[in-house]
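assembly run, all chains below
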Amino acid sequence: MKQVVISAVAAVTGLGNTLEQSWGRLLAGESAIASVRHFACDGYPTDRAACVPDLERPPGQSRLEPLLERLLAQLPAVPGDCRLLTASTKGPIDLLEDRLRGAVVDHAALLLETLPRQVAARCGLVDPGVNIGAACASATIALGRAGGLIAAGRCSAVLVVCADLVSEFVFSGFSALQGLSAEPCRPFDARRCGLSLGEGGAALLLLDAARARREGWPVLARLLGWGAANDANHITAPARDGCGLVGAVEQALARAGLAADAVAAISAHGTGTLYNDAMEMAAFERLFSERPVPFNSLKGALGHSLGAAGGIEAAVACRCLEQGVLPPTAGCEQPDPAARGMVGAFPQPFAGEVLLSSNSGFGGINGALLLGRGGER
Amino acid sequence: MKALVLGLGWVTPGGWGRGGGDAGFGLGHGELPALTRRDLFADPFPRFGRLDAFSRLGLAAVALALGDAGLDNWDAKRPIGLVAASRFGCLATDLDFFGPMAPGGDRLVSPNLFAYTVPNTVLGEAAIRFGLTGPGYVLSAGGAAPFAPLETALEILAAGEAETILAGCCDLPPAGAPAGAGAIFLVLGTAAEGSKAGAQLRLAPQLQVDGRPVADWPQLVAACRRPGRG
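ok done. output:
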């Protein structure tokens, strides 16, 4: 099997238009969760979300377009023979809102297939690409899929691009489900009571290690293992014992040829909902037994960006591995007793070479990635 | 890359059925058959009637395919994967969900319907109903790659990420969209050399069934059918 490396990353979040900006502010414990300005939040339990600042919407277009432009402009020229995978749950959802409010919007403009098409055209790729939809695990599973394609020798380069917006559509849905926190969310905190939405995107270029070496690409991180599993339990609630997440992580460990002891830190999904965070803590306890593995969630800082979350978190994980530190879990001031000593609203240095990043989503799906420290050119 | 076709099932305007039967198959712009849970499930399954129309369509085709493969009954959850292609995904459900937010609407959106506004919920429903714990996701690739889910499924099998996988497509365009509705799923298993268990699907580099190229879904279904088996 071929070795897989990550050679370029870019991210746009509520905390910055570059990964560098976001990383600095994440480490400082800042949060982008603030009042939403691009739609009225009257009648909802909160007006808070983590929006990308100054994302001006061109007339007749989705806010996704300037987000993608801001994101892709940061990437170096990627190989034209890249396979393309995108990950988004709702794509240009603001256009659907327009349509229902009387604007003339063709059905074709609402489809998720528009996202890979736009990215392929912008990046000059031959492959028209495909969007992977797996709810809030979409980007994580797309990255695993990219790893699988390269490892099997099906291709030597894959560009993964993920993006999702804060929209009234999703805001109203989580509000109806009583899933929104009135205050900025508190992942893994004993007082957590719901999620805060966020938006953003990430782009990651994955290469066959031999090609990266041959063409002089940097190795920002290594993709060592990946896994995906369904808990087959409930459409919106995770299995309480974390069986789906455990299954996904065990697959990733098996693919990487690693024991659980190798995992030095975890970038958790950590939405701030009671059941998700409890499920993750149960899964980590099953996987790592009595060994306390430091973990964090970025959702208190960046909000929950749905299908893009796993890609943004993987991009940040490259920096975590480079610098040996997990950013604070914003809002986690009184850690849940089950997580005490492993998570908090402070940076957590870690020693080790391997970081686990995981996400879970509606439909019972779970995805896991094992990332290794990079460093060579 | 290759796999055995262990079963197939479909719901199309031209008919609904299984690979082991002789029912019609026909994609197009006609009406879908009106299936009830009694057509598909031996046990009472009231949840079926509460699903959104997209999930009902997909779950029906999955049930028929698993039944054709003899895999519809289970005691313990199984690591069977699910990959579906869908152009329109849950767009019709999205429009229904957000409809109350239109001018003049009552702004009371449905929390139940919100759960069906991600396209992979149909796979989650199938996972719950049939105890499927393998990888699952929906591909949106446009109409230019009709066999994308089968290619992906073959790659997953070849990589050892699953030993059995359901792969197919499911589409239910919203009213007014110029496209047809229907769903078809194949149950694919790791191909043992010389096995007679079912048709052999191979990607080399175009898709072949038992050594013969297939260009579209009707050709593929015709080549994979085993009338009299079911």
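Chain B has a mean pLDDT of 93.

The longest strand of chain B covers residues 2-12.

not gonna interpret more than that til we talk
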